[in-house]
Fold this protein.
Amino acid sequence: MDFIKQLKAFDEIGSDNLTPNAIAIYYHLFMLNNRCGWKEWFDESDYWIGRAVGIRRRETILAAINLLKQKGFIDFERGSKRNQSTKYKIIELSTRTILPHENSAEDSVKHSAKDSPKDSAKHSPKHSAKDSGNIKQETQTKTETETKHSTPARGKFIPPTLEEVNQYVLERGLHVSAKDFFDYFDAGNWIDSKGQHVQNWKQKILTWEKFHKPEPQKKTRLQENMEAAERAIAYFERGEAL
């Protein structure tokens, strides 16, 4: 499976046919399969999907997963046991046949062009000069209203480089992997778990740290015994000194 082609195909097909939750879950499964070495089937639990994309309700996760399967983006098989993980399969999109409801706007224009000007003139209503004036006035009023209530566009988001992310992590003393953060969002076209484009990556990495702090490593039995021996030696050395 071609990593870049798969992402581009999903961005073109999935953005208009899926919910934000389904898009976020797809990116999570896609990156997980990448880390697994592109297995045909791989395991993941509902719990870890929810943790990764920020969804707490299991019903919401199941609805998004079922939608992904219905649209032909993934396949999955539920485990026979209650706590058994689900097996997932990423469907390759580069060879996918476009469904009727996924036709592009260009195809729609081609079909509409088949209607002859004669037929269009036959079925189009005739408007008087008065009606034309009313339509023009309504259009002008609508345009002025939209302009009045429109909000200024935000500055275009410029994704950071891995070096910039790594430098920010060091400056803030964050306990996260800059590479993991960068790879996750860069592969997902900088779209967060809610399906929204990231506007401030520095703010996003602070939230990322809350859910991806490394757990403290437990000492092995050998390390505990070595430390106990060192303490005992230090104790007897102090006793001899006295």
